[in-house]
Prior knowledge:
Layout: E1 14-17, E2 21-24, H1 33-40, E3 49-56, E4 62-65, E5 71-86, E6 89-96, E7 100-103, E8 108-123, E9 129-132
Antiparallel strand pairs: 1-2, 1-3, 3-8, 4-9, 5-6, 5-7, 5-8
Amino acid sequence: MSDSPAFDISEFPVHLGLGATVVREPAFTGMEWYSGYGQRHADDGFEGRLVSMYTFDASWDSWEMHPNGAELVVCTAGKITLHQEINGKTQAVILTAGQAAINPPRVWHTADVNEPCTALFITSGFGTQNRPR
C-alpha cells in the first residue's frame, strides 16, 4: 500500500459508519473477506454501509438478500441485468453505464452479465443471506 490518499475501491472497499465516518477497508480477498468485515464493524449494526465496486464477466451463481436495509446498485460500465424476487414474482432490471437501481430490504436478488460490466454497490449488509441460484 502506498502513502497516496488515492486508492482503487475495487481492491479496497469502504465502510460508511456511525458518526459519518468513512473507513478504508483491507484489500478484498474473496468471499471470506466479508466475515472479517462484519466483525470489524458489528457495532455499527444496521446503519453501517459497505461501498464496493466489482467488475463481472459472468452471471452470478447465487442469490442474496439483505434483511436489514436497502442496497444501491450503480452500473458504471457495461450492462447488467438485476433479477429481484418481489411478492413472489421475479422482475428484471437492466442497467447500463450511469444507471442505478435499488434492491429493497428482504428482496432476494441476483444478476446476469450481458457483457463485461462494473458496478458500484452501497450495501446495508448486516445479516446478509445467500442461497444457490
